[in-house]
């Protein structure tokens, strides 16, 4: 089974949706702790509405997001701290339940994990899939 990932950094909503359509993605799984954005159109309710209009579903799994300390480390390029913080996050029962939910959702429909960073190497979505996505093909999309 394939799981897609996508970041919306430096893209427009039209480019973002076009990239999802090209890949055949039918559901976006938002793995941001805080589904808010300064980029127009990428906060939770507006994003969900735009995706629905494009025929793409939306689910937010908050427990799979990065805690503030991890986000701060990511902004500084401190991958070691980001990894440590995120590994601890994934130990939480709510995160484990949502990780199982994420995999079930991705098995149901072609799905893309969403976060901000364009480059998945600078994002926790890569850490998430390394931790729980064993046996699945990961395809990183770029808008």
Notes on the protein architecture:
With 143 residues, this protein is α/β, with parallel strands linked by helices. The chain has a single domain, classed as 3-Layer(aba) Sandwich (Cobalt-precorrin-4 Transmethylase, domain 1), CATH 3.40.1010. Helices cover 47% and strands 17% of the residues. It contains 6 helices and 5 strands. It has a 5-stranded parallel sheet, with helices on both faces. Helix 4 packs across helix 6. The longest helix is centred in the last third of the chain and has 16 residues. The chain is globular, with a radius of gyration of 14 Å. This is DUF488 domain-containing protein. Pfam families: DUF488 (PF04343).
Q: Please tell me how large the radius of gyration is.
A: 14 Å
Strand order of the largest sheet: 3-2-4-1-5
- Distance between termini? 22 Å
Mind telling me which CATH architecture this is? 3-Layer(aba) Sandwich
Name the helix and strand elements from N-terminus to C-terminus, one letter apiece. EHEHEHHHEHE
- The assigned structural class equals alpha/beta
Mean pLDDT: 95
Strand proportion, as a percent range, falls in: 15-25%
Organism: Sphingomonas ginsenosidimutans
Protein name: DUF488 domain-containing protein
InterPro entries: DUF488 (IPR007438), UCP024492 (IPR014519)
Pfam families: DUF488
């Amino acid at each position: 089974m394939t799981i897609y990932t996508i970041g919306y950094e430096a893209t427009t909503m039209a480019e973002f949706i076009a990239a999802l359509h090209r890949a055949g993605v039918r559901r976006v799984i938002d793995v941001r702790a805080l589904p808010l954005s300064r980029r127009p159109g990428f906060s939770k309710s507006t994003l969900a509405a735009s995706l629905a209009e494009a025929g793409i579903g939306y689910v937010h799994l908050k427990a799979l997001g990065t805690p503030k300390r991890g986000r701060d480390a990511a902004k500084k390029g401190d991958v070691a701290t980001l990894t440590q913080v995120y590994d601890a996050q994934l130990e939480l029962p709510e995160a484990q339940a949502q990780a199982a939910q994420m995999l079930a959702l991705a098995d149901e429909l072609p799905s893309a994990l969403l976060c901000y960073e364009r480059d998945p190497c600078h994002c926790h979505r890569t850490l998430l899939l390394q931790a729980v996505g064993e046996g699945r093909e990961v395809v990183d999309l770029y808008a």
